[in-house]
Amino acid sequence: MRFHVLTLFPxxxxxxxxxxxxxxxxxxxxxxxEAVNIRDYAFNKHQKVDDYTYGxxxxxxxxxxxxxxxxxxxxxxxPKPARTVYLTPQGRVFNQKLARELAExxxxxxxxxxxxxxxxxxxxEIVTDPVSIGDYVLTGGELPAMVVMDAVARMVPGVLSNxxxxxxxxxxxxxxxxxxxxxxxxxxxGKRVPEVLLSGHHQKVDAWRREQQIRRTFxxxxxxxxxxxxxxxxxQMVREWKKEKRAAPEHEAETDGLLRNEDIKxxxx
Length: 269
Ligand code: 6GU
Hints:
It is a single chain. The chain has nine helices and nine strands. By secondary structure, the protein is an alpha/beta fold. It folds into two domains: 2-153, SPOUT methyltransferase, trefoil knot domain (Alpha/beta knot); 187-268, no CATH class. Strands 2-1-6-5-7 form a five-stranded parallel sheet, with helices on both faces. A two-stranded antiparallel ribbon has the order 3-4. Helix 1 packs parallel to helix 6, helix 3 (64-76) runs parallel beside helix 5 and helix 4 packs across helix 6 (142-153). The relative contact order is 0.11. Bound molecules: 6-chloroguanine (6GU). The site of 6-chloroguanine has 12 residues, from strand 5.
């Protein structure tokens, strides 16, 4: 898998992607990340890439021509036309399904905007996939591009040491959150590791983990439960939890100190 990132801050991309699992995948040549500086395609005296917006308003806009020339230079070296992902809050919201879809590609081009954005005309001409990483505002497309690349790269065979681990995790197939995990010591700050995990009884461990997954999804991301494939018995269990919650709504137990989704008020967004 090859990523080509068009950006005004190539060092940010390389620094962010050269570490840990992704860094190792690059060393192993499973992955190649090229960061191309859009400024190198500003063929004017001061290598200027931004200008004021027509119609007025705050801030500067990235000009069309350097972005286009940079994109053309990158694409001319590719064996076939590649999808061009533009990171923008106006894009399709990124999720695991889109990650899987992008992981099918051999090459991907990422366009990162900065300042107030990029001249609309070049976006119209070169972008195939506008993508957002969620409903909040960032200063540029570099962090979103790294988020998308990380999620896509980990689906490339061999990038994760344990082939099974990418599939069994949150969202990828079960639509359930992960169960909690514990390592040594058995007691830490007075908290014991749940007894069942020390029992060596694999069936009981599996059953406990499954219930924890459903419980956590019910508590923190009830919206995900609609897509989950639960047995009749498990749905029954969820209905019981709902009843308990209705009976004691002021009792905010078992949130593990995490903020529940419904505790996040609309004004926070
Ligand atoms: Cl893709 N870009 C920017 N600048 N902000 C964002 C975003 C992207 N996704 C969420 N916020």
